[in-house]
Amino acid sequence: GVTGTKGKTTTTYMIKSILEQAGLKCGLVGTTGNMIGEKRIASNYTTPDPIDLQRDLRQMADEGVQAVIMEVSAHAIDMFRLDGMVFEVGAYTILSQDHLDYFITMQTYFGCKKEFFTRGMVKNAVLNVDEETSADILRDIETPHLTFGIAAAADLFARDIEITEDGVPFDLKLQGMHPPPTNAIAAASCAMVMGISADDIKAGLEKIENVPGRIEMLPTGTPYRVILDYAHAPDALDNILKTCRTFTKGRLIALFGCGGDRDKGKRPIMGRIGGE
User: Fold this and answer.
1) Which residues pair with 212 in a beta bridge?
2) pLDDT (tens digit per residue) in 97-117
3) Of these four, 32, 48, 105, 179, which has the most CB atoms within 10 Å of its CB?
């Protein structure tokens, strides 16, 4: 189970790729729809309502699925959609402003995410220590846990990161062992907790080419590149534009929207970011 404002979809796809590399048949539940292997099942929510979710899990079990990777939304936690379920591993990515039409305050929103780790729903936890709110979770968590990050001291961390228009190579290191990428480290952390080998983790991550709508390179047959990204929060838009700026040779043109009639407070913030 992967929770956080950003990174859930990419991380779940990466975990799926790693576990499939290790020989497991996988199911996926998330924003882009549910999957059994490469077969897609329609879904309306990031984390479906309980009856739909249990029906899909039943179908996955019947078709031989051995591991399910699921995006866990704050709405699902707050609405008790996951009651009765226990996750082998729970991952926490990044928190940023979103869904305040429902949660009203960031503290309430975060508190809901925190409950995923403190309410007995996960057997093991992996936490992004570059995300400052992780310290609050770490203070109260009672389950075994692994930390990951890039800037802060962590159990699993990345070094020699290079951002290019063709990918992000980096070295992954485990504290205490001798010899992207936040989402990739999160995925690797989950896989390590599940006992997946380093070779399968590496090969599984290398197999990932595109996650739908997540820094997705669109073929144009022209000298310029078009990147589709689901940057639905202010810092997500800021990050993707700054990242693209590092390898853009000429003009950087951004077309973005802030869809739906939900959290309207982030719209002027995103407009200002786009302008800057």
Assistant:
1) none
2) 777 888 889 999 999 999 999
3) 48
The answer to whether 55 and 63 are in contact (CB under 8 A) is no
- CA distance linking residue 189 with residue 89, whole number of Å: 9
Identify the bridge partners of residue 68 per DSSP, sorted by sequence position: 27
Instruction: Enumerate the β-bridge partners of residue 227.
Output: 217
State the pLDDT at residue 178.
Answer: 37
In a 3-state reduction of DSSP, which class is residue 103?
Answer: helix
- Number of helices (H), then strands (E), belonging to the chain: the values are 10, 12
Q: Can you state the percent helix, strand and coil of the chain, rounding each to 5?
A: 40, 20, 45
Do 81 and 48 contact (CB within 8 A), yes or no?
yes
DSSP letter at 143 equals S
Burial readout 40-60 (b: 16 or more C-beta within 10 A, e: otherwise): ebebebbbbebebbeebbeeb
Amino acid, res. 36: I
Return the residue matching tokens 């070295």: 171
Cβ atoms 28, 212 nearer than 8 A: no
Strands (E), 160-229: 171-174, 216-218, 226-228
Beta bridge partners of 67: 26
pTM: 0.79
Q: Give me the amino acid identity at 114.
A: K
- 2: closest CA among 94, 112, 85? 94
**211 forms bridges with which residues in the sheet?**
214
Q: Is the omega angle on the peptide bond into residue 212 within 30 degrees of 0, that is, cis?
A: no
Between the two ends of the chain, the Cα-to-Cα distance in Å is 35
Q: Helix or strand or coil: residue 118? A: helix
Is residue 181 over pLDDT 80?
A: no
- pLDDT over threshold 90, residue 86: yes
8 and 93 Cβ atoms separated by less than 8 Å: yes
